[in-house]
Amino acid sequence: MKVIMTGGGTGGHIYPAIAIADEIKRRYEDAEILFVGAQRGLEKTLVPDNGYEIKLLDVQGFNRKNMIKNVSVLKSLRNANKEAINIMKEFKPDFVVGTGGYASAPIINNAHKLGIPSYIHEQNAFPGVTNKMGEKYATKMFLGFEEAGKYFKDPSKHIVTGNPVRAGFMSVEKEQARKNLGFKNKEFVVLAFGGSQGAGRINKAMMSAIERFNGDREITICLATGKYYYHAILDELKEKGMEIRDNIRIMEYIDNMPEFLSAADMVVSRSGALTVAEVTVCGKPAIFIPFPAATGNHQFFNARAVAEKGGANVIEERDLDNEKLIETIINMMNHQEGLADMAAKSRSCAPVDAVRIICDNIEELKQCND
User: Fold this and answer.
1) Selected residue with higher pLDDT from 296 and 62
2) Over the stretch 113-135, which tens digit does the pLDDT of each residue have?
3) Which of 28, 201, 273, 296 could form a disulfide with 123 if both were Cys (CB 3.0 to 4.6 A apart)?
4) How far is the C-alpha of 184 from the C-alpha of 111, rounded, in Å?
5) Where are the beta strands (DSSP E) in the chain?
6) What is residue 80's predicted lDDT score, i.e. its pLDDT?
């Protein structure tokens, strides 16, 4: 079996693709899997780090603010289409799976032209442009949220699956994760991050929390800033003359997120579809701060779905007050019974069968076509 996985740009597109690829390899040990992404995306490092080969296309998304710049975008897209066809003719995949992001468009579109079955997974409640355009070429559309279906045109193609989460998030025990990361069992661990690119407003709020809890032996703050903010935050702390104590960990990016999530007592984060899936699979109470500029405000609806079941608190960015965030953290830390209840309710929102449903459907359709 040969499979092309395509998608990228951010972790939200890449990690679901890796989760699907891992399940295919689990079912078919001799399966050959090739990823195709964009030269400018995170996939160029994340995919090889997870053990898969990747080919990169020189393609970029359309610039909606400066249409003149799209002349070069169209040129690169034409070249990417040619390269995509060459890749597929050489590799000869049995089928293609796309998970969104502009890198997937040349593969999905041209797979249709070559008669290769293609499947698309849409992670969000409000779909991305690439996946909406690709629906007409896809054999089936896998939906992370049922609500996404109303934005597509062909309900006969839709299968609600939830969002794929890598197996590592389901297999790491909290005690072992804490031992591996050097956390004590009695510490209250807060994990804060803003997605693969970071989030300036969350970082700013967590800076206040770091100042408040620095040196407090009862609580540990782990903040993943994103590469664009990391050095600025360290410089700001240095300017304040603040000596960072052992209970504060500031990182640019978290490579081993399954361990950090398993070790955490609570999470402060954005609420992209993948983040919500990973947090709930690990059964972590969360303070979700949705990205207000997300298309269709989908992050708010992702967060609200968990909050309505009691597994999270939602603070919209316009209402985010640094002291309010600190008070919420303290309240959650001091009410362990309520925290345990939130953890159980968070876990009840987890899409535990997404990867199985996707691969079962691909297998069934492949057998029908063989």
Assistant:
1) 296
2) 999 999 999 998 888 888 999 99
3) 273
4) 51
5) 2-6, 32-38, 53-57, 95-98, 118-122, 140-143, 158-160, 188-193, 219-224, 248-251, 266-269, 286-288, 312-314
6) 87
Distances (CA, A) of 287 to 131, 160, 243, 324, 335: 29, 26, 27, 11, 15
The region, left, alpha or beta by phi > 0 then psi within -120 to 50, assigned to residue 351 is beta
Query: Is residue 238 within a helix (H) or strand (E), and if so which, with residue range?
Result: helix 230-239
- Per the structure block, which two tokens stand in for 7? 């998608």
Cα gap 366→361, rounded to integer Å? 8
Cβ-contact 131, 84 below 8 angstroms:
no
Residue 73: name the closest of 84, 58, 60, 57 by CA.
Answer: 60
Tens of pLDDT, residue by residue over 188-216, are: 999 999 866 668 899 999 999 999 999 99
Residue in 134, 96, 93, 99 with CA at minimum distance from that of residue 118: 96
User: Cα separation of 221 and 214, whole Å?
Assistant: 8
227 secondary structure, DSSP code: T
Judged on CB neighbours under 10 Å (0-12, 13-18, 19+), 24 is buried
Q: Encode 73-112 in three state secondary structure.
A: HHHHHHHHHHHHHHHHHHHCCCEEEECCCHHHHHHHHHHH
Span 77-99, pLDDT tens digits: 788 899 999 999 999 999 999 99
Task: Give yes or no for a contact between 256 and 264, defined as CB atoms under 8 angstroms apart.
Answer: no
The residue count for the chain: 370
Arithmetic mean of pLDDT, 134-161: 94
